[in-house]
Write a structure and sequence with these properties.
mainly alpha
Length: about 250
């Protein structure tokens, strides 16, 4: 059974808790924090990325999460779905073959599914990679594609700074550099959901250039999907609303 987000007004806004250093282990979006985020949309061009088809909506199952409290949190199902959308757009922008993109997007949807909490959770990338390896058929049945070795490597390394890689991890990165770098970029772009601006995307920490269209689009995905969820939509409904608003056909 999934633990629902606290009802509005049941606790101080995330932004207030973050500013005072009191963030709890499990963190849920609230209206005041989202309003603050919405007022700070990054500048960018009006043009949007183009794809031959809309990005696939890949939503991880709540039952895949290591803790029920995290499925609806800021690292939960909507975060995974947005990162999967962003990865598809970025991969198309960089010319990846479609056959590589779908498995990577499936892994992106699941990259945080084994988190224990919403703080720094050392090792959650490796745990998610191990879970994916043990559940390839489950993921393929639900998301339409089984993660590949490069997908598993990208998930395993997504939470680690480049300068913290061990020798083995650095070798794995060299072997699957494009997949790792794409997931790290897509994951970073969804940081607009966080309650302090200093935690928002930092290009200096990334190895790929950030397309000009990406920051405003990523910000819009956060605002539209989280607003819909706060208004009572399911995760699927919230993401469908956000995609329609941000990437109209």
């Amino acid at each position: 059974m999934i633990t629902a987000a606290p009802s509005p007004g049941s606790s101080p806004p995330l932004r207030e808790l973050a500013r005072s250093g009191r963030l709890p282990d499990h963190q849920y979006m609230d209206r005041a924090t989202l309003a603050w985020i919405a007022r700070r949309r990054p500048a960018g061009p009006g043009a949007r990325p183009t794809m031959p088809h809309p990005p696939l909506l890949l939503i991880p199952e709540p039952s895949w999460f290591a803790r029920p409290e995290t499925a609806d949190s800021i690292h939960g199902t909507r975060h995974g779905a947005r990162v999967a959308v962003l990865l598809q757009l970025l991969a198309h922008d960089r010319g990846l073959a479609p056959g590589r993109v779908r498995p990577l997007a499936a892994g992106a949807a699941c990259h945080d599914c084994r988190r224990h909490h919403d703080r720094d959770d050392s090792g959650h990338g490796r745990r998610a990679a191990d879970w994916l390896t043990s559940n390839l058929a489950v993921v393929a049945a639900a998301l339409g594609s089984a993660p590949t070795p490069e997908t598993v490597t990208a998930v395993a390394l997504h939470d680690l700074p480049y300068d913290a890689f061990t020798e083995d991890q650095a070798r794995a990165h060299r072997r699957h550099r494009q997949a790792v770098d794409l997931l790290k970029l897509a994951d970073a772009l969804d940081r607009y959901r966080l309650p302090l601006a200093r935690w928002w995307p930092d290009p200096a920490r990334l190895r790929l250039p950030v397309p000009a269209w990406a920051p405003p689009l990523a910000h819009d995905l956060v605002v539209h999907s989280e607003q819909a969820r706060l208004d009572g939509a399911t995760t699927t409904q919230a993401m469908e609303h956000a995609l329609h608003a941000v990437l109209p056909e």
